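tool=predict chain=A
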Amino acid sequence: MQTRAGSNVVQTKDVMKKVILSLVIIIVLCCVLHPDRFALSYYPYIKYSDIPNELEPSPRAIAVVKESAKPLCLLIPNGLETSLHHPNESVTEYDIKHLARRLNIEEGGAWQPSECVSQHQVAIIIPFRNRTVQLWIFLSYMHPFLQKQMLNYRIFVIEQMKGAFNRAKLFNVGYAEALKIFPYHCFIFHDVDLIPQKLSNMYACTRQPRHMSSSVNTFRYNLPYKELFGGAVAILQKQFELVNGFSNIFYGWGGEDDDFHSRVINRGMTLCRFPPDVARYTMLAHSKELPSENRFMNLKSGRDRFATDGVNTLQYTIMKVVYYPLYTWILVDL
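tool=predict ok
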């Protein structure tokens, strides 16, 4: 006959088994459902010591310095901090209004060093809609960041007026409109919710197209998959023309980055990346978009459209252009 004490021991063991089984199930589900379960903790990258050899200076800068009393700026400024930086997410409208004056930023969000001629002439293109808080954080962080790298740059914010969001086409619009202002040799296509954390992550172009945001905090600083070419990318103007820019047909979320990767590979180029400890980004909080139902179909037919769907067939209507103190704002109807 089983005693009460013995019965309690059996019940305790049963409870423990259920608790352990529950914990095992939770751990397995976390591993299976985690977004970076297949992420790469290591990927091929340019060694930090080799980065200067891979950067592509602007030919125009070389020509300008011959007619100027100013010397060329260093390709990479000396003494860039290697510590991990974090954005101030409590930026106010007052901060934004006074930043341009404090940093001597030109109207339209442009800046260049006064003491030397920058070897990097960069247009930073931001697709935008309904992300005002993230934009304030981005601008307040990025202008000091870019100035420390001694770039000749301008920030373009391309806002879609109505309809399903088309991030890739907004990139194409930004590219086309930027070239009407200045012959930039390097273009950086950048989401507004990504913030670089290392000053050694140069916002300049390399010989091959570069995936800049390869180490993001939301993926535990891992690369989700090796073909990823989104978030923040840098590409030379001549290379962007060669691949015919982005596709114009990706409405809604998803697919356009993979299509752009295919365009680059199709033209015989390869992606490059900086080391994981350099290419670190933090992602600002934002609401998630619903995936487009057509993204897989568009990707499947992409190769057939590389030559007929891109900057060479781009159509849009400019509704308004404003040269704000911290950026050039272009409102478009797609």
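DSSP finds nine helices and eleven strands in the chain. Residues 32-39 have pLDDT under 50 and may be disordered.
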